[in-house]
Amino acid sequence: MVKPELAPEYPAYWEADVVLRDGGTAHLRPMRADDADAVQAFHMAQSQNSIYMRFFTYKSKLTPKELRRFTELDYRDRVAFVITRGTGIIGIGRYDRLDDPTEAEVAFNVSDAHQSRGLGSILLEHLAAAARENGIDKFSAEVLPENRKMMQVFSDAGYEVRRHFDDGVVSLQFAIDPTEKSRAVMESREHRAEALSVAGLVAPKSVAVIGASREWGSIGQQLLEHVVEGNFTGAVHAVNQDALEVSGMMPYTSILEVPGPVDLAIIAVPYDQVPSVVDQCGQAGVKGLVIATAGFADDGEHGLVRQRALVRQARANGMRLVGPASLGLANTDPAVSLNASMAPALPAQGGLGIFSQSAALGVSLFASMSRRSVGMSTVLSAGNRADVSGNDMMQFWEDDPHTQACALYLESIGNPRKFSRISRRLARTKPVIVAKSDSMGLRLPPGHVVRTTQAPAGALDAMLRQSGVVRVNTIEELSDVAQIVVGQPLPKGPGLAILANSGALGAVVADAAEGQGLNVAVLETSLVLNMGQSRALPLLKRTVLSALAQDGADSAIVTLLPVVGLTVDTIAKTLQECSQESGKPVIAVFTGIFEPSIHVNRQMAGSLPAFSSPGGAIAALAAVVRHAQWLTLESSVFEPPVGVNSQAVEDLLDTWLEGVSGDELVTLSSEDSRELLGHYGIKVLESVPFGSDDEAVAQAERLGWPVAIKTLDSSLRHRLDLGGVRINIENADSLRRNIVQMRKYLEPYGKKDLEVQSMAEVGQSCTLRAIEDPLLGPVVSFGLSGDAVNLLDDWSHRVPPLSAADTAELIRSPRAAVKLFGYEGLPAGNVAALEDLVARVAMLKDEHPEVALIEFKPILVGPTTVTVLAVDVRIGNPAQRTDSARRAMRS
Predict the structure, then answer these.
(1) How many angstroms separate the Cα of 562 from the Cα of each of 143, 241, 497, 502, 606?
(2) What would the pLDDT profile of 338-350 be if each residue is shown by its tens digit?
(3) Structural domains in the chain?
């Protein structure tokens, strides 16, 4: 036995809740020594064939020696994971390091009752992540030829598997470093599993309302009534331990008494009863929960602890959880027709999926869409968002044929990198509209616990833009955009046709459009429609279609003052026909309507977006145009920079970080920084500190004249105006004089240490910075050096990986960036070389989270060259990124 005082530390951070292939959940954790009895029970429950496949022989029971070998681990050379459901083990995976310290033998054993649920692939992902952490880079396995399922696990994982048959056994070997193919496989499996888990919630075959009450107006009574009156197509059960009759139904006293399987349980019981009810749901085999009960994370730290325990309890028993404090969910698909929410009626059927967090915002968003007659596909209120999140809903919406566009109101993002990855994929096929609270990361709603971000202001918004989402600030803006993207084609460009029956009104709309970056291709302000309906409507249709047929007209806004003899409904019908026939979006703006019964801020004539004022219409259309432009840029092929050696950098970091732990950061020397960056094709102009004048002259002779001398002080070394640098020194005598003058000038500040550097081509001074943020992961920031960034905070930010379009936008986004493209008669800089440098830095940061900071200050962008004059590189051991190479649910 291992002595307790020598027992290795249990790696609790390896634990994870996981979603299985069929959408169920389970808990994965490292095996412990006290698992011996559970491992024995697992083994004895297996079939003879399964035992033979694992051990190449049949053994009815494991010996005490075998149990000790299997369960007593060092979590370095010998690692094992178990997947549990409830208290029982349903899968085991392990590796043992071989004589070659970079290789380990791997083996799996999955419960017969849980075959084909993807347990093997999940175990492989987590074993590979642990092995890489422990310096292992390849796995091997010995498998019987008839064990096709196990061989399939390895080959389907996306690894390049080598096979060798010898003495009746198939030997497999493969590298476990993530590849593009293996990452794609993991993402595909994750997507499929999470989409199915949400589908089980929003499209159940049976529903039980636990806490259904006879008391009118109570939450339980309303939830049951809404499910029944919404004409849910499945079975409905009421559960109430006291009542004899609820809404004409005979209730069961416990979920355990309900006959047949229950897919979804809606829980509306008092706060203190929720844990026991969740436990009973687990025993009954319920697949998903909606918890309407509030008071968990709202009750301070004590309530948050109870909420986390509730989530662990649900996931460990295979259940996903919506809430607590959820308003519920709805699905308008006629095959489901589920209104498991506090909304009094099922919303109109349509193509918009809605996700919200807090109850108040959920009510506001639902009401706004209902007022605008925007049909919905699925609606989910996450409440405290303890489990099911916006990421989960996007996974579902991507496959849902009933959802055409997606709207999310987010008060926090628990896993921004995963959000970015999913939304970027989803937005290629369905518009994603996101309203985000500006308090994110500062004042989070109860229960919305995320890592603290250290990223600069604007980085999260930049990530959202990169991800292709339509970013808005308010529910009203979200609703405006939703009106357009649901039912209208996306515009192919920024060209706009404006038609009005008032010159002044048309001019106002044109000014607003140009202010939003739209190009006015057609401006027709002489529409005369007061000629009766039979003549006016055909004229309107011909005029709009003619305008849309003009070159550069990608969409149209028709803004009209009231016309005698024409109703807004008949005009809307005509304009919708124009959109359908042209294949281009048409937006109506009805101004000057005073009749309260005529409500025009809504979809009309089926799917025509109609507004009461031009401002909201123009802003919403401009947002949709930017999304369409992103789609065009997103389709461009990204070519990674050449001359990159990622493995060499990884080897350097392993050496330099040996013995470094915790939050400690190591600042690299100039030589080490140049070596590290050189492996990514990044050159830093050499600079040499000196003590004596003679040493400075000798170094200048070696570097080549002319030279510059600088103070080593970081705040002054690039400030010519403050005496921190002198340039274009062409000979030894001049160098000696400048050294004396600089030291005399800097002596009062105690900044006498200097360095010498050869001169670079004159150009615009820029700053490029890349950090590792605990929440967002890598963040790259760019700006023009000096007052632009120091005083005006004129930065742009992006989150790697960067596409070519992302890189170009990063450089062009600062307001001062116009200086790079020729300014006041100065020549333009070599922006192509600057983009190449940014792409290399972004790739380095994306691949090596151990690089905590890279700051180039400054970079000189000249007409023909880009020169890095100085760099600050710091390395450390960062926490695991929120989107790692192993599937795990947010805790």
Answers:
(1) 79, 61, 20, 11, 21
(2) 999 999 999 999 9
(3) 4-177 (3.40.630.30), 196-484 (3.40.50.720), 487-634 (3.40.50.261), 644-685+760-891 (3.30.470.20), 690-759 (3.30.1490.20)
